[in-house]
Amino acid sequence: MSSSTATATHIPSDTQSEAPALRRTLGLWQGVSLYVGSVLGSGVLVLPAIAAETAGPASVLAWLGLVLLSVPLALTYAALSRQRADAAGFSDAIERAFGPRWGAVAGWLFLAQVPMGTSVVALIAGEYGASVLGGGQDMAFAFGTVMVVTAYALNFVGLRVSATAQLVTLAVIVLGLGLIVGRALPEVQPQAFTPFFSKGPVAVGLAAVQLFWAFVGWEAITPLAREFKDPRDIWRASLLAVGIVALVYLPLAIVTIGAIGHGDGHGQTPLVLLAAKVFGPSASRVVGIAGLLLSFIPVNAYVAGTSRLAFALGERRQLPAWLGVTSASGTPHRALAALLTVVLVALSATWLGRLRIADLLPFSTSSFLATYVLSMAAAVKLLKGPMSRAAILSLVVCTGVFFFVGTLIAWVVAVSVCALAYQHFAGPKAE
């Protein structure tokens, strides 16, 4: 749909499946790269050491448990996408289950975390990039900003180009991680795993809470379901992505404990330590570049997903209808421009206020968890048979973790109230 014909046209939610606005350009492996990229992010650089310090060798059980949880979680989201492929993704599923107002709430919650979440990843990426050149905080912000702008630029060109760049980058990173972990495996000492429950069995649960953030991302690709060439590839991409994530996370957790140790103040960058151990001190520069690239992957995937979500909410008038328009090439250019503007403002505020990752991350993670709870509740109502049971399991786990956000429940409530107020005063009339 060209911008000239779409500007004055609103496509109702019940006819979106017939809309030609978004083109089917995604193949299986491009879908896999976007799925994996949404989950396998910069957390892999820091979380193995954090979990090892929390639970000792038994932290491996926390990694394994969350990998297993990823199967029903990813398949539940895939089932919702297959049931109805819609650019609103999980928000559309929640709308079908509980009505348009709650679908809008979920969409707003997810989009509300974009400025903070993008700033967090930009900070992580910038720090790794600046470490290569020995630069300070200003250089780190510059690196992070360039990375974010690059991701948006690729998505402006088109999803196929963006996904292909994602696939190439992801392949290089996974091969690099595999090389480091493979070379470190002979360094693993069996005695490092005894006593296995050195911090106690309860610590495994605490480590699982920390590691949950490494497994957030299965929802981000649901807005892209309309752009798969073959809808069956949604299932295939989900399963392949879970397998790739497991093959990266589990061996890295094992070598972090067996080759580095735990609880000895090693810091939060096990890949740097592993690379230096097996390749020499100069490998830290390579890992710095890898950290920058690894941070780009989730940003690129989330730009694709969040822009489609903003576009879909604009179509529904759950956000300004101006956003629900595509360019002649089928790219949601207005949603991309709006999100980029907000993100650049957030990055500027982060730089001027010298905000830290710890200041921004809680807002992002609380929004993620809220959308997960709503999504799984919708899946319980919409899905049948084994997938319904998978949704119930996922709902129970996600609800339990959500209570750990504490006072940030107030942030979730505030965004929800704003979403409901917008629907009441400016959005479409509820049916």
How would you describe this protein?
The chain has 431 residues and is an all-alpha fold. It has a single domain, classed as Amino acid/polyamine transporter I, CATH 1.20.1740.10. It has 17 helices and no strands. Helix 2 (28-39) packs across helix 11 and helix 15 packs antiparallel against helix 16. The two termini are 27 Å apart. The relative contact order is 0.21. InterPro entries: AA/rel_permease1, APC_superfamily. It is a multi-pass membrane protein.
Brief account:
The protein is mainly alpha-helical and 431 residues long. Helix content is 70%, strand content 0%. The model is unreliable at 1-21 and 264-268 (pLDDT under 50).
The quaternary state of the protein chains shown equals: single chain
Average pLDDT across residues?
77
Annotated CATH homologous superfamily = Amino acid/polyamine transporter I
Largest sheet: none
By secondary-structure content and strand pairing, the structural class works out as: mainly alpha
The proportion of residues forming helix, as a percent range, comes to: over 70%
Strand content is under 5%
The string of secondary-structure elements, in order, is HHHHHHHHHHHHHHHHH
- CATH fold assignment: Amino acid/polyamine transporter I
Q: What number of domains? A: 1
Distance between the termini: 27 Å
How does the overall form come out from the CA principal axes?
globular
Question: Count of helical segments?
Answer: 17
| Spans of at least 5 consecutive residues with low confidence | 1-21, 264-268
Number of strands: 0
| CATH architecture level-2 label | Up-down Bundle
Query: Measured on Cα atoms, how large is the radius of gyration?
Result: 21 Å
Supply the CATH class.
Mainly Alpha
